[in-house]
Amino acid sequence: MVSILEGVSNVERLRELAAHVASLPRPRRVTLRDAEITRIISGSCFLAVWSGGWISGILDGWSKNNSLQVVFCSLPIVFLAGAIPWEIRWEISNRKLVENGEYSLAIITRQAVRGRGNRSYIEYIFADRSGGTRAGEGCDLTKRYREKMTVPVFYDSECRRKHIAICCTRWTVDGLEAEQITKLTLNWRA
After folding, report:
1. d(Cα 6, Cα 139) in Å, to the nearest integer?
2. What gap in Å lies between CA 185 and CA 106, rounded to an integer?
3. Residue 144, exposed/middle/buried by CB under 10 A (0-12, 13-18, 19+)?
4. Alpha-carbon span 147 to 91, nearest angstrom
5. For 122, phi and psi rounded to 5 degrees?
6. Which one, 19, 31, 33, 69, has least CB within 10 Å?
7. Amino acid 183: pLDDT
8. In what order do the strands lie in the sheet with 102-114?
9. 84-113 pLDDT, tens per residue?
10. 113: which strand partners?
C-alpha cells in the first residue's frame, strides 16, 4: 500500500484512517445512505404510477384483441422486471463487500463525467493485503472525487474481480460516516 501512496501528502493521516476502518469489527454494520432511502421511496412511488398506466394500456389492448398494443405496453414492464432485480443483486453484493471485505485506500487515476445525468465515472488502483495491485472502476455517486484523490475501497482478498470504492455504492459503514471519509480523503492528492 505504501508504494501506491508514496506521493500522497500527509500519508500519516491516511494511515490513521486506514487503521480506524480496519479496527471496526467484522461484519461491519452498514446502512443505506439517507439520500438513497429517499430515492428508493420516491422511485417506487413513480414506478407504481408509471406501471399502472402501462398496465391499463395492456388491459385495454387485450379487451380490443389488439396484440400489437399488448406487446408494446408489455415491453417496458418486462424490461423493468429484469433491471430491478439486477440492481438489487448488485447492491447486495456490494453490501457483503463493505460488511466483510478487506480495506485499502485507492488512488483515482481517471475521472470523467458522461451520460445523461452527468454521471461521474472513476477509475482507481489500490494495493491489496498481499502487495498486489488491483484496478477498478465505478460510478461515483457522490460526484465529489477527482483524479489523484484517494478513495476508500473494500475488496475480497480471494477474488480479484470483487471490489468497490465507498463512493460507488449506496451503503455506508456505521461508525464511519461517508461525510467523515469524504472530508478526510478529499483534500489529499497524489
Report:
1. 26
2. 10
3. middle
4. 25
5. -125, 150
6. 19
7. 58
8. 133-140, 119-127, 102-114, 150-155, 163-165
9. 788 888 888 889 999 998 888 888 999 998
10. 120
The model's pTM is 0.71
Q: Where are the domains of the chain?
A: 2-32+101-186, 34-94
What pairs with residue 134 in β-bridges? 126
Give the total residue count for the chain.
Answer: 190
Reduced to 3 states, what is the DSSP secondary structure of residue 11? helix
Buried b (16+ CB within 10 A) or exposed e, 122-133: bbbebbbeeeee
Cα–Cα dist 83/73, whole Å: 17
Q: Residue 190 carries which DSSP code? A: -
Match 469489527 to its residue by C-alpha cell: 25
Burial state string for 67-99 with b = 16 or more CB within 10 A and e = fewer than 16: eeebeebbeeeeeeeeeeeeeeeebeebbbbbe
